Amino acid sequence: MIVDTHAHYDHSKFKIDRESVLNSLQDSDIGLVLNVGISVASSEASMRLAERKDFIFFASGTHPHEASGMTEAGLNKLKALCAHPKCMAVGEIGLDFYHNFSPKDIQRDWFKRQLELALEVGLPVVIHARECDSECFETIKKSGVRKGVIHCYSGSAELAKEYVKLGFHIGVGGVLTYSNSRRLVETCTVLPLDRLVLETDCPYLSPEPFRKDRNDSRLIPFVVEKLARIRKISPEEVREETTKNAKALFKFEIKTN
Length: 257
Description:
- This protein is of the alpha/beta class.
- The chain has one domain (about 1-250): TIM Barrel, CATH 3.20.20.
- It is built from 9 helices and 8 strands.
- Helix 2 runs parallel beside helix 3 (about 70-80) and helix 8 (about 220-230) crosses helix 9.
- The radius of gyration is 17 Å and the shape is globular.
- The two termini are about 30 Å apart.
């Protein structure tokens, strides 16, 4: 079984065939999926997906691209979603100083507020970090949050080790198969295997040889094969260990009061 720890099946790119794609996942050994919100509306849509499909869980959060649209009322809605029995994380939250679709100060404010939310509700976080490596790390370190995944990791192996020391996991997806993924290959070589989890970020970041196509969880085996070669272990061991890691981090079970 494979766990996809970061998907966006609520995305409009799945509008035409969403149901057929989702129905095919478990036939492709995709056992569990964490559908990750990028806004209040997206988090609500992720919740509805999770309510329809037993194998889908969700995360509630606002992406840094969407930070300009966040409000106190929106934060309260995200908090309410965190109480849902299938909400396993706060995310996708973080900083993105590459695109800067939201002003940096607004990104910083809502990132800190959502880290506080994660502490309050006792959930791990799903972190987006681009062109902000040291600031993102220091913000998380100061927040006191000590469980989560650094999604689509692009930093150095040394920084990844520091995240692991804090208690975090590193998300590995299609980028690992790209020819320019030297830093991620190094990270996957030196980190303990029990700190790696698999993800897609679908519909984005399809692995080679499907890089120009829409991504979905059925393509994760290409990432598994690459990670197995890097670690010099079998694909079966990669599947087993990363699944165990994901389950330990996100506690994929329906919460009860």
